[in-house]
Write a structure and sequence with these properties.
single chain, 107 residues, alpha+beta, four-stranded antiparallel sheet, 2 helices, 25% helix
């Protein structure tokens, strides 16, 4: 149990690093890379919020079953540039993930 608690805070950092790389990118680049959003909404300022939901099912651990799910939300301004990024859940970051943004010269 103690080991699990140590891994949780550090396990979140790679996901944040992958998502923060999208700050300032164009929405169409993100959609080309990861596919269409699960839903779209607006904030009180009128900016669009694009949501991607992911449910990876359940895994069995020594402590019982754990559900793997994640919501990634990208706020986009009127120029369709990504201005805000949030995520909730227990996403994992894998090196070949579509959420990993390549540098412009790598595409």
């Amino acid at each position: 149990m103690f080991l699990l608690l140590l891994l949780l805070p550090t396990g979140c950092s790679p996901v944040r690093e992958q998502l923060v790389a999208w700050q300032g990118a164009r929405l169409d680049e993100l959609i080309d890379r990861v596919g269409p959003p699960s839903s779209v909404s607006s904030d009180i300022a009128g900016n669009k919020l694009y949501h991607w939901y992911e449910d990876r099912g359940r895994v069995y651990t020594y402590g019982g079953q754990v559900g793997l799910s994640c919501e990634r939300t990208f706020g986009v301004d009127s120029r369709e540039l990504i201005t805000t990024i949030t995520w909730t859940g227990n996403c994992i970051a894998v090196p070949d993930s579509p959420w990993q943004r390549n540098a412009p010269n790598e595409d």
